[in-house]
Amino acid sequence: MTEKMPNTAVATNRKAYHDYYIEETIEAGMALLGTEVKSLRLGLASLTDSYAIVKTGEIFLLNANISLYPHGNITNHEPLRTRKLLLHREEIRKLTSKITQKGFTLIPLKFYFQRGKAKVLIGLAKGKKTYDKRETIKEKESKREVERAIKARNK
Fold first, then answer.
1. pLDDT tens, 15-70?
2. N vs C: which end of the chain shows fewer Cβ within 10 Å?
3. Tally of CA atoms within 13 A in the half-sphere of 67 that contains its CB
4. H-helix or E-strand containing 138?
């Protein structure tokens, strides 16, 4: 009998939802070193300004900061190193064809653990213009105001 472990989010990229329209999400494994996994378990990761690229039929994660493991020794990892993402060949082919379309890019949305394995949720994203960002902020604020009014009315 196996217990179900919840998907514990280690790091999320909240800025991505503000700066991009997320069209599709894909779960990918990561080729990590031992000290990187230990740092992730401690929550020492940041996804701001990180992105993924396709190079020679493989997908790599760039600028994802996994901080140094505090109890590591001289074999500790480099925090901003390029990490290989583990996807099926068919998934890579689909993503490559979509990325070649104008304006699409791959953005990591969150690091998490699933059944003991470190995973990254990659979003196929299209950039927002500044007026789109303002519109999104207005929508969120109006929803918040409506919820407050309903809550105040129910008291």
1. 888 888 888 899 999 988 888 888 888 888 888 888 899 998 899 999 888 888 88
2. N
3. 12
4. helix 130-154
How far apart are alpha carbons 103 and 119 in whole angstroms?
25
Distance CA 150, CA 131 (A): 29
List the one residue out of 93, 103, 127 whose CA is nearest residue 21: 127
Number of H helices, E strands in the chain: 4, 9
Give the H/E segment covering residue 8: strand 8-12
- Taking domain 8-128, whether its CATH number is 3.40.190.150 is answered by no
Q: Domain ranges in the chain?
A: 8-128
Residue with token string 């993402």: 85
Which element (helix H / strand E) includes 122?
strand 117-127
**Spatial separation of the C-alpha atoms in residues 77 and 45, rounded to whole Å:** 13
- Which two tokens mark 12? 């999320």
- Cβ neighbours of residue 41 closer than 8 Å, sequence gap 6 or more: 10, 113
